[in-house]
Specification:
This protein is mainly α and 225 residues long. The chain is 67% helix and 0% strand. The protein has 11 helices and no strands. It has 2 domains: 88 residues, no CATH class; 119 residues, Hypothetical protein, domain 2 (Endonuclease III, domain 1, Orthogonal Bundle), CATH 1.10.340. The protein starts with a helix and ends with a helix.
Length: 225
C-alpha cells in the first residue's frame, strides 16, 4: 500500500509540474531526415530484448561503419555485412543472425519510401492504423517497437510503449499481473494507460514517459532501502 501511495505521489507531482510548465514536456521532434529515421528503426530492432543504451551505441557505430545510403547491394549482401558487424568480438550483439536478417529485410521497403516517410505514415488516417502497417511492412517490428519508433520520429502521440516499467505501474494500480504480452494484452494495457492519461489531462506519450520515469525512480529507491 505504501508503495502505491509513493508511486501515485510521484506521478501526480510530475504530471502537475508538466501541466503548470514547471517541468519541460518530453519532446519528440518530427524527424524528416531519412538517415535519422533509419537510425531510429535500427535502434528499435536492436533494443528488442536487449539493453537500450548498448543498442544506442551499437546503432551509432553500425551507421558509421555500414554506409546503407551509399550501398547498392542485394539484400543477401546487406544481411551478411550486418551479421559480420553484429557478431564481431568488438560488438558481441546477442542476436546477430536474426537481427541482420531483419535489418536487411527492413532496408528494402524503407528505401522505397525514405524520402516521404511521414507522408506514408499519415496516409493511414490514425496512429493505430499506421502502427499496424509498420508492423506488417517491416520484419522484426512488433507493437512495442512500432509504437516507440513512431513516437521517437514525432509521428505519434497516442501510442504507448509497454515495457517492464509500465507493466509495474499496471500491476500496482490495476492489479494487472501479466508478464507475457500478446497483441491482445498489449492493446488492453494501452487502453488502460489512455484512460489514465485522460484523467491527468496529458497526451498518452507524455503520460507514458511520466509513468516510466516514476516507476524507474521508485524501483531505484526501493533497491537502496
Amino acid at each position: 500500500m505504501k508503495q502505491r501511495y509513493l508511486f501515485n505521489d510521484l506521478i501526480c507531482s510530475l504530471s502537475a509540474d508538466i501541466r503548470n510548465s514547471h517541468l519541460r514536456l518530453p519532446t519528440f521532434v518530427v524527424e524528416r531526415q531519412p538517415q535519422e529515421i533509419w537510425r531510429h528503426k535500427i535502434f528499435c530492432l536492436l533494443s528488442s530484448q536487449f539493453n537500450a543504451q548498448r543498442a544506442v551505441n551499437i546503432t551509432d557505430r553500425m551507421l558509421r561503419e555500414i554506409p546503407f545510403f551509399e550501398m547498392h547491394l542485394p539484400l543477401s549482401k546487406i544481411q551478411d555485412t550486418c551479421f559480420r558487424f553484429l557478431s564481431s568480438p568488438q560488438i558481441g550483439y546477442r542476436f546477430p543472425k536474426i537481427r541482420a536478417l531483419q535489418i536487411s529485410l527492413c532496408w528494402f521497403p524503407f528505401a522505397q519510401i525514405k524520402d516521404e516517410y511521414h507522408e506514408y505514415v499519415s496516409s493511414f488516417g490514425s496512429e493505430v492504423e499506421a502502427r499496424k502497417h509498420i508492423i506488417e511492412l517491416f520484419p522484426g517490428i512488433g507493437l512495442k517497437q512500432a509504437s516507440m519508433f513512431l513516437r521517437n520520429i514525432g509521428a505519434a502521440k497516442r501510442l504507448s510503449v509497454i515495457d517492464v516499467h509500465i507493466l509495474y505501474y499496471l500491476k500496482v494500480f490495476h492489479n494487472w499481473n501479466v508478464d507475457h504480452l500478446t497483441s491482445k494484452r498489449y492493446l488492453e494495457a494501452e487502453m488502460l494507460l489512455k484512460q489514465d492519461a485522460e484523467r491527468y489531462n496529458l497526451e498518452l506519450n507524455v503520460f507514458d514517459t511520466v509513468v516510466w520515469t516514476a516507476a524507474r525512480a521508485l524501483k531505484k529507491a526501493s533497491a537502496h532501502v
